[in-house]
Amino acid sequence: MDVASPFSLSLWAILLLSLLGLPIGHAMIAASIIYLLLAGQDMGIAAEQLLNGLYNSWVLLAVPLFLLSAELMNIGSMSDRLLRFCNALVGRFRGGLGHVNVVQSIIFAGMSGSAIADVAGTGKVIIDMMSRGGRYTRSYAAAITAATAVIGPIIPPSIPMVLYALVADTSIGYLFLGGVIPGLLMGLSQMAINSWMAHRLDFPVEKPIPLREIPAITLEALPALLMPVILLGGIYGGVMTPTEAAAVAAAYAFLVSALFYRSITLRQTYDALLSSARSTASIGMLIAGALVFNYVITVENIPESVRTILTGFELTKPVFWLLVNVILLILGCLLEGSTILLVIVPIFVPTAKALGIDLVHFGVVVVFNTMIGLITPPYGLLLFIVAKISDAPLRHVIRDTLPFTAAMIVALAIVTTFPETVLWLPRLLGYQG
Amino acid sequence: MNSSWTQVGAWLQRRAENIAVVMLATMFLAFIIQIAFRYVFNLPVGWPSELSVIAWVWGVLWGAAFVVREQDEIRFDIIYSLVSDRMRRAFAIVTGLALVAIYSISLPAVTDYVMFMKVERSAYLRIRFDWLFAIYVLFAAAMIVRYIWLTWRAIRGDAPTAPDLTTTRAD
Fold first, then answer.
1. Rounded to a whole number, what is the distance in Å from the CA of B169 to chain A's nearest CA?
2. What distance in Å separates the CA atoms of residue A77 and residue A74, rounded to the nearest whole number?
């Protein structure tokens, strides 16, 4: 590649501007404008791509709506009641609160599309519960909370899968379904690690919740437990699209909190809207930047060139899978998941297609992979968040997440090697692939 | 900084937030209306979905221009958060000047594009697209002003705050 070509200069501009701390969305827009200028094209194309891209990508509306529904679930006491229910269910075993943490995250994953929302919702409560009276170290409590939150975007609904569906032009419905078994697998692997740690470090057994209290606790949590049923039933019963399901989720969370639990004020509703509007704008700018830069990538035919180069090496499927997984895991240590999904993953999609890899399988694997990046240092958003809310030193939290990270990488290898783990459920519901 | 100016700034900031909240609420309610019309009244209508898309486009660009705080921005923060305040000031000056220059150079061309879109109207609400897309011009102009301000602050000696790595994002 010519080092002074408009394309390579714009690539340098992205790298330089984002390394120096310019928001990544703006770095991509600015670099695209540089490209248009140097290539002698109309710079108005930047606005055209950005505006039409946002205006015509109907599926993207799921992103703000899922952000809003997570905010509403967390300010109403939905998340807390769910936690109490999980405690009644699995709290009685050795290392019980660790298992509670996993089960709570699995159910929460069926209601929300974001890992950060899970930690923001119940992270503090459960870390305090676990570390009260020194039963678990604060760093272990923080570590398992971060690790289990990763299940959030794997089990549907999932914001990162919406982003993948956008760049790879795949069905969101089937992607969502494909995430169910890998998400459960991730949860199981975490429960295994927790059991192992519980025996090794002799974690306490909680006093079991008396059986006669369980019906009342279940009833309290029922509206929260019904949410995944409504969402997934609605989507796969053909009643609503995933985007509509996001709106229904937000409406449901609001109604349950306002009418059933009576635990939400007007002020809180405003704050939930404002906080979602902020997150929407910052992720929206990243998406906007990716839409504009995608024009440059397309004009320069980059994904095809990558495909030609990679297939020129007579690349086999297993080698390609290994390559993609290793590259994404490394990038996950340095970059945010949505950036990887919007900017890096599209480059690999044509090659995956050419090698005969199913794009739903590919999507679930890359989302699974990039979400592991949420807990891999040095840049793991969840690590920073749990370290902050638990007051445990970051390096201790990192040390305690390592067994979980290892287990997740094993689970990733299983999901990569056996496409059935992803595709069995979508095929059962009519996916032709 | 004069304190009455700070007050005016804070007041404007809150109004900008009010508008962002209205946009998100509009998007959400329009969606609910659409679903209700289709399933409850069995009467599919198109305008609510158009309204929610418009609220989405405006919400993103309005929010990015006036509501997103520096610590909310998605950036590559590893290096940015490790360097000294002095270094971060230098970074802010370089990126600020670059952004101001690039967005300014492209401003006439993007304005032309937006004006050109007056030839089309939206499908249901029949709104002229130059009006719908004008938000981009506002966004670009606001970004230029914002980065002139950030650059000026960095030159004067206020280091940008180290990023807070725990603000909510969408992953």
1. 6
2. 6
**To 10 degrees, the CA torsion angle through B109, B111, B116, B119?**
160
Within this chain, do residues B117 and B63 fall inside the same structural domain, yes or no?
no
What residues of B are in contact with residue A376 (Cβ under 8 Å)?
Answer: none
Q: Which residue range is the domain that position B121 belongs to?
A: 73-171
Last residue of one domain, picked from the residues B19, B40, B68: B68
Q: Considering only the beta carbons, identify the residue of A244, A277, A381 that sits closest to B24.
A: A277
Which residues from B are below 8 Å from A18, CB to CB? 75-76
Question: Is the same domain home to B63 and B78?
Answer: no
Q: Are A61 and A162 in contact (CB under 8 A)?
A: no
Contact at CB, A381 and B169, closer than 8 angstroms: yes
Taking alpha carbons only, the member of A291, A382, A357 closest to residue A57 is A291
Residues of chain B found within 8 Å of residue A338, distances taken between Cβ atoms = 74, 169-171
- pLDDT tens for A300-351 read 988 888 888 888 888 889 999 999 999 999 999 988 898 899 989 999 999 9
**Residue type at B8 in one-letter notation:** V
Task: With CB atoms and an 8 Å threshold, state whether B53 touches A379.
Answer: no
ipTM of predicted complex:
0.93
Rounded distance between C-alpha atoms, residue A415 and residue A425, angstroms: 13
Phi and psi torsions of A324, nearest 5°: -60, -45
Distance to chain B for A51, nearest Cα, Å: 7
Q: What is the pLDDT of residues A231-286, one digit of tens each?
A: 888 888 878 888 888 899 899 999 998 888 887 889 999 999 999 999 999 989 99
Q: Does the pTM exceed 0.90?
A: no
Tokens of A32: 């695209």
User: Cβ-count burial of A99 within 10 angstroms (0-12 exposed, 13-18 middle, 19+ buried)?
Assistant: buried
CB < 8 Å to B52, chain A: 61
